[in-house]
Specification:
Strand order of the largest sheet: 5-4-1-6
Order of helices and strands: HEEEEEHE
Number of domains: 1
Low-confidence stretches: 1-23
Number of helices: 2
Strand content: over 45%
Number of strands: 6
Distance between the termini: 38 Å
Largest sheet: 4 strands, antiparallel
Mean pLDDT: 80
Structural class: alpha+beta
Amino acid sequence: MKARLVLLTLLLAGGGVLSACSSESGGTIVEKEYEAAGVSHGTKCSRVNGKKKCTSTTKRKSACYEIDFQRKDGSEGEACVTKDEYDRLNVGDTYKP
């Protein structure tokens, strides 16, 4: 019984966090932009025991069908959406996450 109560409490708490994250309001689309997937390479250096040590880095970026929107309160937001949603939405449309 105690384990069920703990599980129920965790599920309810998790749902509260999830609903807080998904409650972001949308707004009017002001710009659309496709950002292609890519890879960037660089070097990261640090000091270890007084000696400089450098390692190469690789960062991968996923493709993003990005829409920028303006909320009713004037603040701005952005979101990566599916290709189908990107193709369906136009500047001036209302975006609802």
